[in-house]
UniProtKB/TrEMBL annotation:
Residues 5-129 form the Glyoxalase/fosfomycin resistance/dioxygenase domain. It comes from the Bacteria. It comes from Streptomyces violaceus (Streptomyces venezuelae). Residues 60-81 are annotated as: Disordered. This is VOC family protein.
Length: 137
């Protein structure tokens, strides 16, 4: 297996909703395992997500989970998830869905380096960067 770099997102009880939302945005195969699935069926957090993984047909892998009991999580920790490429329609579609009901800090528009770029935070507090480059000739 090739070593991969994957974003791993942590949520305060909204992992199921967030991961299902990202599946709506990107498509693909979503696997969700709750704490109850891993032998904690009677625990108060049994229905919370211990590990989730979304693998898309575009080759993205996004992982996420609810914070384990007793650990704090702050949405928007110092990270961003970056999407980049030259498929204008695909990337613009992701942007529209991710920014809907979220906040836009940099509108998706042409930048000084020639690409279209934008930054938003989705409704779950996850910061995203989208860069639409010009197709290579």
């Amino acid at each position: 297996m090739v070593t991969r770099l994957n974003p791993y997102l942590t949520f305060n009880g909204e992992a199921r909703q967030a991961m299902e939302f990202y599946k709506e945005v990107f498509g693909g195969n979503l696997t969700l395992n709750s704490y109850g699935d891993f032998g904690q069926a009677d625990a108060p957090n049994a229905d919370k997500i211990m590990h989730g993984m979304l693998e898309t047909t575009s080759g993205f892998t996004l992982m996420g989970a609810d914070n384990p009991p007793g650990m704090e999580s702050a949405p928007g920790n110092p990270f961003s998830v970056s999407l980049s490429g030259d498929d204008d329609a695909e990337l613009r579609g992701y942007w529209e869905k991710l920014s809907e009901n979220g906040s836009v800090s940099v509108p998706l528009e042409k930048q000084m380096w020639g690409d279209e770029f934008g930054m938003c935070t989705d409704r779950f507090g996850t910061p995203w960067m989208v860069n639409i480059g010009r197709p290579e000739s």
